[in-house]
Amino acid sequence: MTQTIPATMRRVALAARPKGAVTPDCFRIEELPMPQPGPGQFLVRVIWLSLDPYMRGRMDESKSYAKGVEIGETMQGGAVGEVIASNHPGFAVGEFVVGPFGWATHALSDGEGVRKLDPARAPISTALGVLGMPGHTAWVGLNDIGQPRAGETLVVGAATGAVGQVVGQLAKARGLRAVGVAGGPDKCRYAVEELGFDACIDHRAAPDAKALRAQLAEACPDGVDIYYENVGGKTLEAVIPLMNVHGRIPVCGMISWYDLGGLGMGEVPGPDRLPRVWRTILVQRLKVQGFIIFDHNDRFAPFEEEVSAMIRDGRLKYRETIAEGLDAAPEAFIAMLKGGNLGKQLVRVSDDPTRGVKA
Ligand SMILES: NC(=O)c1ccc[n+]([C@@H]2O[C@H](COP(=O)([O-])OP(=O)(O)OC[C@H]3O[C@@H](n4cnc5c(N)ncnc54)[C@H](OP(=O)(O)O)[C@@H]3O)[C@@H](O)[C@H]2O)c1
Predict the structure, then answer these.
(1) According to the lineage, what is the superkingdom (predicted)?
(2) What is the pLDDT of residues 256-271, one digit of tens each?
């Protein structure tokens, strides 16, 4: 089916680097002439944009595992879209794709990092969440790094978010006790009643790490074997003393510290807790391993096979929080970083013809 291609597109550019928390004036929404695909390129109409915590790091100047966004550049991000014009032999008009299309209504691509989607297999938005990068991250971090064994206890922070919701349910499916930490009573109720966590502690209601630890100790009577680290901060401080001998800590993220930017050793305000953490790693013989999901692309196929089967037969549930329209992306991103989302945070940039929903 041919589509009329508009004369202009919109994008969200980085206008200023955040000083601490992200604010709306860090972003600028711009209208540009619609780009035309050159030889070997295709044009994508973006349908779903993914908003992810890693984008906070890309807004800083300091070097991380990937290059940041320059001022004036389009914000980076994964998105799902439809090919609407193509000079690429491998991508035809009408095909649905997921790739690094950025915060924009349209994007040109040469096919690098792009995967085709079959809307008959799963809703195409899931390629950004439960069947995409966050789900894959949960699966690799839990299985390959966490090495779970039935009967053990797992704790995960941001338990009802894109990664955490999958970690908890996979842990339960493998016979572990799963204890979540999440922000607010509604999220905690959802974690236990809908996702099947054994318990969930509200970190926002705990005044400090000591209070959080007391609740976690009660919820984990046999100690903690796997701490799936998503958040750092108070939760990490609460869990460390509860770790069992030979425990494992897959270090996936540390969202509570992202606003510190690139502060170095000794530059972070507050008391130094490193000696206590380091001592526990030694005394309890913990295995602590950081990982970045793009090093584990070889594990995508087994992840997708297992998790799509679990979704099909109702053993794994997931939620999406949807903001409407590209212009809503900055506010939705800021809200997500503060816990405004349940499950995967998405932006519906344009109509999803596979859902029959109007934007
Ligand atoms: N290593 C990798 O390759 C990789 C890949 C994907 C994601 N990650 C990391 O995994 C973590 C979760 O990512 P996601 O995409 O699933 O995001 P998400 O959990 O869907 O959304 C972020 C959540 O973080 C929680 N949060 C915010 N500030 C917090 C704080 N100060 N203390 C505790 N929790 C806080 C909020 O949940 P509450 O309301 O429950 O507090 C918020 O909903 C992030 O750290 C992310 O960077 C790493």
Answers:
(1) Bacteria
(2) 999 988 777 778 878 8
Same-domain pairing of 255 and 212: yes
> From the CA of 191, how far away is ligand 1's center (Å)?
15
Distance 336 CA to ligand 1 centre (A): 9
Q: Ligand 1 pocket check: which of 56, 202, 230, 295 to mutate, most ligand atoms within 8 Å of Cβ?
A: 230
117 and 192 inside one domain: no
In a domain, 310, yes or no: no
Average pLDDT over residues 2-24: 93
**How remote is the CA of residue 35 from the centroid of ligand 1, in Å?**
34
Q: How confident is the model at residue 287, as a pLDDT?
A: 97
Q: Which residues line ligand 1 (CB under 6 A)?
A: 52-54, 134, 137, 157-158, 160-164, 182-183, 187, 203, 230-231, 233, 235, 252-256, 291-293, 336, 339, 341, 345
User: Structural domain of residue 117, as residue ranges?
Assistant: 8-129+318-348
Q: Give Dmax over CA atoms of the chain in angstroms.
A: 65
Residue of minimum CA distance from atom 44 in ligand 1 = 253
* Residue whose CA is at the smallest distance from ligand 1 atom 45: 253
Query: Ligand 1 atom closest to Cα of 182?
Result: 40
Residues 157 and 141 both lie in one domain: yes
226 Cα–ligand 1 center, Å: 17
What angle separates helix 164-173 from helix 300-312, to the nearest 10 degrees?
80
Q: Convert the pLDDT of each residue in 118-146 to its tens digit.
A: 999 999 999 999 999 999 999 999 999 99
- Claim to verify: residue 212 and residue 82 sit in the same structural domain: no
Q: What span, in angstroms and rounded, lies between the C-alpha atoms of 144 and 131?
A: 17
124/128 Cα distance (integer angstroms):
8
Judged by DSSP in three states, 136 sits in helix
Q: Is the pLDDT confidence value at 299 over 80?
A: yes
Beta carbons of 161 and 343 less than 8 angstroms apart: yes
Same domain, 278 and 201: yes
Task: State CA 61 to chain mean position distance.
Answer: 21
- 240 in Cβ contact with 223 (< 8 Å): no
With bands split at pLDDT 50, 70 and 90, how would you rate the model's confidence at 2? low
What are the pLDDT digits (tens) for 203-218? Answer: 999 999 999 999 999 9
The CATH code of the domain that includes 238 is 3.40.50.720
pLDDT of res. 262: 72
